Amino acid sequence: MRTLRLGVAGLGRAFMLMLPTFAADRRVELRAAADPRPEARRQFESDFGGRSYETIEALCDDPDIDAVYIASPHQFHRAHIEAAAARGKHVLLEKPMALTIAECQAMIEACRRAGVHLMIGHSHSFDLPYLRTRALIESGTFGRVRMITALNFTDFLYRPRRPEELDTAQGGGVVFSQGAHQIDVVRLLGGGKVRTVRAATGAWDSARPTEGAYSAFLTFEDGCFATLTYSGYAHFDSDALCGWTGEMGHAKNPAGYGAARRALATVATAEEEAALKNRRTYGAAGSNGLESIKSGPRPAAHNHFGQIIASCEHGDLRPLPDCIEIHADDTQRIERLPPPGVPRVEVIDELYGAVIRGQRPLHGGEWGLATLEVCLAILRSAREGREMTLEHQVAL
Prior knowledge:
By secondary structure, this protein is an alpha/beta fold. About 35% of the residues lie in helices and about 20% in strands. It has 12 helices and 15 strands. The chain has helices at about 15-25, 40-50, 55-60, 75-85, 100-115, 130-140, 175-190, 260-265, 270-280, 290-295, 345-355, 365-385, and strands at about 5-10, 30-35, 50-55, 65-70, 90-95, 120, 145-155, 195-200, 215-220, 225-230, 305-310, 315-320, 325-330, 330-335, 390. The strands form 2 sheets. A 9-stranded mixed β-sheet has the order 14-13-12-11-7-10-9-8-15. α6 packs parallel to α7 and α7 crosses α12 (about 365-385). The longest helix is centred in the last third of the chain and has 20 residues, at about 365-385. It is globular, with a radius of gyration of 20 Å.
């Protein structure tokens, strides 16, 4: 079996979340990485025996990698994509794709000119519960999907943040970072082509001056409609609706209520908060290397993104971390899902298919642009108090 030789640009929190996948999937070899932090580079070299670089340009000059996983902050995505494409590297790019439509278009064009694949992920639309729900919709057994209900309540806004993560203009707030997940899932189930968006956003903590919540009403070209609600204000936890399975598939203890706010209360300045966040990143204090990942608990269930119900003409489908609840016209049943052997393996399935087998990825650049367009429409609709009509949507 040919392995996919992968380089990593950005050894931060996003890389930490994908590391269990990369480490467990034998189709992937982590060959090189780029990060400005020397401690992260040293940790990578120790864990993987690979090379490390200070810049993405140097990483992409490495002839021993097929593709680059770009997990740098949002505002650097365009420059990093263009650096990778110019050197003939395929790209797996963290969401959100960028902060403007023009940036997305430039990135798509750079990859098209270079003849390389661009794939946007991870997002939770890769998760098996949602992929299986989409397959049930496409089977035709339950008729067309007509309505989608999505709801997620988390502590996102009170996790440690760098200053730019609390500035909407720099890609901060829940719409860019969390809305991209929820929108991707809803677009997957609804067929992809959103027609209009009407939304409101909430920003009601002056100490965290960015959007912490939103509700949006989406219509699709085929008449399907969807409601999306998200709150990151660390009060109600919607994992209670998913059997107390956390977003990453691990069992969650309800007694941990308020932990994010308590941790944040220990810092007094933006610098201290950034330092607190850095303690959770790869290579920090030597405690976040590969061995800690391997020795940690394995997820018993699949990743998820809160409560989702797809209402079809002849039944409601409710994906959960370990099953699909099916409430049809004349029957009610549960379709169990196999436990995840490799967490988020579906990301590697799609990336390997694109890079090694030449298959067009579902989550390509056009898909990522369409999801960003919905994010931007939510913000603009809330700001202007009107419905937005979309122009850059793509079907599955």
